[in-house]
Amino acid sequence: MPNPRTEQQDVAAGGAAFRKVRLEDGGAATASVEIVTLPKKGYQEWAFLRFKTGGKTRKLYVGKVTSETREQSLALAWKLVHEKQVLEKAGLAWLTPVKAQATRSKAR
Q: Is pTM beyond 0.90 here?
């Protein structure tokens, strides 16, 4: 039975293939976006890109993603991940290039 959270991540990212991170050792990991609500920040939602490497979870800051629904927050977060080049600034890359994702999105 499919995991609803995994499906939400896949849809927001543009497909499961667009969540794959190329690691320093040549391996791959599946990234996800974590949405955190901070009461001290007026219940704003903040996004972090997460993936496992070397037995540890890496967490990269994405930005503020407060939206009306979780799906909207996830979609905004994935958009910001690419616009801000969060992964690339950390010295990493996607297995499926972002250009391929942009081409795929235009075809819809």
A: no
